[in-house]
Input
Amino acid sequence: MRLGYGTNGFANHRLPEALAVIADLGYEGVALTLDHNHLDPFGPDLRERTAEVGRLLARLELAVVVETGARYVLDPYRKHEPTLLHTDGAEWRLALLERAVDVAADLGAEAVSFWSGVLPADVPEAVGWDRLVASCHQLTQYAADRDVVLGVEPEPGMLLDDLAGYLKLRAEIGSETLGLTLDIGHLVCNEPRPPGNCLRLGAPYLVNVQIDDMRRGVHEHLEFGTGEVDFEQVFEALKDVRYEGLVAVELPRHSHAAPKVAADSIAFLRKFS
Output
């Protein structure tokens, strides 16, 4: 496995400078969140800008996964909306995910990570699930045609919020393209099993790992050593299942101190990895 850092934790940096700092600190990869100031997926000349980022990643020797959880990239008023579950606007979310697949194909990214979204108040759960399944059918075909792997992330508070939900979705989709993203903090936050058990259960499908500290029942990404995650257990499980992908730090609310937090994070994680 290789340690990476998420660009959503460098929101106050220009993307080239963020990548340079991440590489200089010793990270081997980056989780690139497509956002307004970091390879805007809806800006002009996306293909050309992507090629420029690809050249920079190659020069810095950084592997990459593409993340799609930017807060206001689709709606300036509503965080993380619209989602694949909405009655109006779901096509914009699907368009974002398809553009992320295009970016990933051009960059040679290891995966594209995405989540289901929060179930809207006016949408019955069964309807929301059917919409998610239909969108994932379309997206997996789009990704498979471009030789890109997807990683669905169970997210606390969303329709698909745990590993059991992912396994149900994968069974209905029936595509090897639909892999799994696991956030270590989320495993502590709301999974019934210990993180190590979750990693072993999800190992056959695991294409992307995000890492942070967290407390049981509280969805707040914390700096390492300030929550309840047993990192020794986590890295033991990752080694046991021979996970070879990126393990990228996910601290999206720490951009105000990004260089220091990133330096502290890699020093902490190296004790276990």
Remarks:
- The two ends are 8 Å apart (CA to CA).
